[in-house]
Amino acid sequence: MIGIIGAGGWGTALAKLCGQKQQPIVIWAKDAEVVQEINSQHTNQTYLPGVTLPEIIRASDSLEETLQKPQYLIIAVPSQWLRGVLRQMAPFVKEETIIISTSKGIEIESLATMSEVITQELPQVNPQRIVALSGPNHAEEVARNLPSATVVATPRLEIAEKVQDLLISNYFRVYTNPDRVGVQLGGALKNIIALAAGISDGLGFGDNTKAALLTRGLAEMARLGVAMGAKSPTFAGLSGMGDLFVTAASKHSRNSWAGREIGSGKTLNEIIGSTKMVIEGVNSTKAVYQLAQKLNIQMPITSITHQILFEGLAAAEGVTRLMSRMRTHEMEDVVTANYTWL
Fold first, then answer.
1. From CA 318, how far away is CA 82, in angstroms rounded?
2. Residue 336 has what pLDDT?
3. Cα maximum dimension of the chain
């Protein structure tokens, strides 16, 4: 039995993926209308339009009912809502449950990763049974059985492989990685850089500009990750470079869309008010900016994006400030003494 907490696009797509493997599923939604639609029509037009769900999927608006039997629990709620939902779940979660977190973000108030929030709120669950899932996975494409790949991360290989077997299919390839910190940070930080790339597009800049933003953005993602205990190679993988590329380039990406809207002159409040979807990059920018300050890590793209979103900096001026920074080396471990002078 699989329980899924959150009936947004990604939670619903994962329910369809597992349902196609004939695994019994209960998906929790806070909206009674969504529950009724999933149960009666086998669709979720609000969050995943145009997709028919297997009849084996059942929806509920009761956390107690959803959490009665599952061996696996997939959590797919926005990062800033996670702690509140976990507190409601806590009395019903069994200690033997394997928890799969798909939320991408850093909690603003605590600056904690999602696995840290889960550990704090569900102390009955061994932290090694908490698995982070992240990668270049748009719900719209996974739900239509388009070939995709993802990564599941936990320090305990046995648990990672159980989740790998649970989710892998002939169109959804699942890899394992012990670097849970890096996988989570990749999923959170890429939204900030995708916002910046969208702003560049909205300003009318070209491919050169976007390529520079993505490349240097990936460098600052890895810089913060290593400072927090992650492994640098993780950021060259699916949850880093892969997810960054798809989020910055895709028509499905809410973060790059929001960036384009900002670049074209709209305010953040106008953009947030125009959609029911959560733009995770906005909250991630706020949290990661604080983390960079706390750890004294240089993250110029994140810093400028923060100034544009929250401090009233004009988008065009932000680009000028980035381009006018003091000259530096591309590779941070290269110093003048490493060069051979002819």
1. 32
2. 45
3. 76
Strand partners, 99: 73, 130
Domains in the chain and their CATH numbers? Answer: 2-178 (3.40.50.720), 181-323 (1.10.1040.10)
Classified as helix, coil or strand, 176 is strand
Please state, as a whole number, how many other Cβ atoms lie within 10 Å of the Cβ of residue 310: 13
With a cut of 50, which residues of the chain have pLDDT below it?
334-337, 339-342
The answer to whether 103 touches 76, Cβ cutoff 8 Å, is yes
Among this protein's residues, is 104 annotated catalytic? no
* φ, ψ of residue 58 in degrees (nearest 5): -120, 140
Let me know: does 192 contact 285? Beta carbons within 8 Å. yes
The pTM (predicted TM-score) of the whole model is 0.93
Q: Which two tokens stand for residue 111?
A: 């600056």
State residue 328's pLDDT score. Answer: 80
Report the pLDDT value the prediction gives residue 251, as an integer from 0 to 100: 80
Cβ atoms of 192 and 301 closer than 8 Å: yes
Please tell me which residue in 190, 231, 266, 294 is annotated as part of the active site. 190
C-alpha separations of 262 from 116, 255, 324 in Å = 32, 11, 22
How many whole angstroms separate alpha carbon 285 and alpha carbon 307? 10
* Sheet strands (E) in the chain: 2-5, 25-28, 57-60, 72-75, 98-101, 130-134, 148-153, 172-177
How high is the pLDDT of residue 338?
55
Under 8 Å CB-to-CB from 185, ≥6 apart: which residues? 113, 221, 224, 225, 228, 230
What is the Cα–Cα distance from 6 to 131, expressed in whole angstroms? 17
Asked if 264 and 202 count as a contact pair (C-beta separation under 8 A), the reply is yes
What is the pLDDT at residue 277? 80
Which pLDDT tens digit goes with each residue over 96-132?
A: 999 999 999 999 999 999 999 999 999 999 999 999 9
First to last CA, the chain: 68
